[in-house]
Each structure stands twice: as C-alpha cells, then as structure tokens.
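User: I'm putting together a teaching handout on how multi-component assemblies are represented. Below are the sequence lines for each component of a complex, exactly as they appear in our records. Could you produce the 3D structure of the whole assembly as structure tokens, so the students can see both representations side by side? Please keep the chain order the same as the input.
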Amino acid sequence: STIVLVFEAPSDFEFTVHAGQKVKVGERLGDL
Amino acid sequence: LMNAWTETPTKWYPLPLAVGALLLVAIQYRKKVKKARLEADLDENGMEVIRLKGPWHVHVIGALPLRNMSRLWGYVNSLELPIWFRPYGYRFYAYAFGCNLDEIEPADLRSYPSLGAFFYRKLKDGARPVDPAILVSPADGTILHFGTVQGMQVEQVKGITYHLDALLGVERPGHAPSLAEHGRDMSIVDDQEFANVNGIEYSLEQLIGTSSSSPQSSGFSTPALSSHAPPVRPPTEADALLAHPPPKKYGERIDASVVEPDRNTVAHDASVAREMGVRPSMERKGSLGARNLRPGHSLFFTVIYLAPGDYHRFHSPTAWVVEKRRHFVGELFSVSPWMAKRLENLFVLNERVALLGRWRHGFFGMVPVGATNVGSIKVNFDQTLRTNVRGRPPPPGTFSEAVYSNASPILRGQPLNYAEEMGGFCLG
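Assistant: Of course. Below is the structure of the complete assembly, with chains in the same order as your input.
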C-alpha cells in the first residue's frame, strides 16, 4: 500500500529525506 | 558489380505529382490520427481519461480479477488459526517480511487470532518518537518519490506524472446539498415534531441553549429538556428527509459524522484551532484549496510505500483538519516500486481515499492508496467508509464524498494532531 501526501507550504519548505530512504511514523519528512 | 555500377545509364524522368500528393496526404493523416488519439484521452470536461497504460505485462495484470483475488486473500487471512500454530506462523511471517516483533502490542503472538489481525497490529506506546518538524512521516515505509507539484502534475516516479485532479477528484458544479446542510438548517430543528420524528427528546436549539453534556460518538445524547416547549407545527418534508434519508446515490455527499456539538466542544475546538494554528474555516475554499495557493507558497507531494512487513496503521503527519474525504473505488494493482515504474496512472487507477483539508500553511491532502494484498482502508473517524466492496468498479475518477463539517463546527472538520492514529490498511 501507499500513502500520497499533497500539501501547500511556503516555497522555502524543504524535504529532509531522499528517495529510497526507510522512514518510520513520526520521523521528520521536511521542515521550513 | 563495378561494371554494373559504372556502365548502367542513369535515366531521369519527372515523378508523377500524384505520388508527392499521396505522400503529403499520408503524412497529414498520420498527424491527424495521432492528434485524435490524444484528444480521445480528454473527456467533456477536458480532463484526461484515465486509461491503463504501460508495457504488455501491465495489461496482462490488468486483465486479472484483482479485486476478487484481494477479497479472497482477505477472507483466507481472516480465518482463525489454531492457538498452538500462531507463534510459529507469525514468527515465520516476521522473518520473511522483516517485522520487528519486539515493538508490537500485545507482545503475545497467541493473542492474534488470524494473520489479518496480526497484520493490523498496534505498536507499544513510545515505540515511535515524534520529531518536532512541521511534517513527519504518517507511516513506516520507504520514500518512493517527493517533490513540488508543477502545473498540477504529480510525479509518480521519475518521468511518469499524473494530474492532481485525477488523484484528488474535482468539485462537481451543482452538487446535491449534503444531509448535513439540511440537518443544520436551524428552522427545522426548533420543533418538537422534529425531535419526535427522530426519536430524540429535544431539538438542537435546546441542546445548544441548555445542555452541558458532551455529545455521544454516534447520534444524539438526551440532556434534560428545557422548561419551555417549542411551538408544535406539522412535520415538514425536511423532517421526513432527516427521519428517513434517501438511499445514497454514488457521488452524493453524505455526512460521516452526525455528532452535534455542545458549548464545551465549541470552546474546546476554538482553543484547538488556536493551538494548531489552523484558521477556523468559515471561508469555504472548496476541497481543492490546491488551486488557489497563497502568494509565496508552492504545492509539494511525497509518496511513501509500505512493504508487506511494515506496520500498517497510518498516523497524522502534522496538525491539520480533515474537512472531507473522497472514496474512489478503483482497481487494486500492486503498488510496489517495480509496478510504480511501469504502470502510468497507478495511483489514480487504484482504490483510494482522498482525505482533504487544511493545515496552518493552507491546503493539505493525504491519500492512502490500496493494493492487491491490502485492499481495505480504514479511517478511525469515519465509520461509514467501506472499501474493496464487491461489484464492478465505476469508471475511474468517480468518487463518493463525505464531509466532516459536523465533527467540529468551529474547525468545520475533524481535527488531528501530530502522529495521532488515523486508521490503517487491512488485508483483503
């Protein structure tokens, strides 16, 4: 299964992950 | 060969014009066919018609009865296993798919009656510390892809895109007002008849005016009646509608929560709104706030793939308010990275539940997408949602919608905090 997030954010929002990275609930995905 | 090449006389003569003309016609015709094929992909609203596109094996998989296979898989995994077998079976599954048995709750493997129950296991409290960032992962899994939405096109994987409207659905003009709107028409609730018709002993006016009890999770609670009896008038058609709502047609909005607030809830939600930094949404930006972004804002997306061995409940990725959900009954292709790289439109063909709302920075959407082995999607605050039900799926892009406006009148939606459990994926 898959979860797709689509969201509006200030343009300086940055993802702190990379494709292929394993993540767990609550881990940082991105920040301003 | 040399003689033939050197001695054969070259004879020049004009090509008949017809051949040139035929060539032009052929080129024109090919262009027209190509354009017609592109046009055919657009429906009357100019939206791209979602079709199965990809290499031949994708079409072979598309011909399989995926939904029936998924339901059979779910049925088999709902069968109760003998108690003595459960530890061995679940340990084998954990070994094969890399599950971490130390963090599950309850830890005793015999307490899971079936593989389906084990698949929908919970985690121990504290097993997932929450990062203070504004966006955290909603699930255990692998980041398949992420980036910025350019021109309403979302990238499935490098090079393959689909339209955001196809993923989230488009507001349709002239939508039938939902029961919730009828239900909130104060003129029909200040009426003893309405109360009787609905088997309750008070009207909403009395609830808001007198009671201090908190609402039950389903239906109405029955606080003490206020002293004055409201004027009685013959039941209207709206009372009858509320008493016996018509069967839901596909695509019609239903209200997933009929809990009416009382004063405490309203005050509590106002404080939650301040805490979450979410504006009480009086202005209805429509579900696709994605269209009218605030200046200096962009639209981002990220795709997280949950492998069979991952913990399959999903949590809230931030503090946000879910205003509505759109359930798209679709196919149940595998969503593995292998398939995502080959099957275009995978996430807009599959069964999915688009949860739409807003957070402190504007529009926010979260879309759990089902797959062959996990066709069922549960949302804790939406008991009316049923996924992967029997029957032919309607054309891609049609959805049934539920609004959560009654969950909280101040926030006009279901408020969720960081890492709050929202629901999950079940086998079959």
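A couple of points students might notice: Residues 174-233, 240-263, 281-287 of chain B have pLDDT under 50 and may be disordered. The longest strand of chain B covers residues 297-305.
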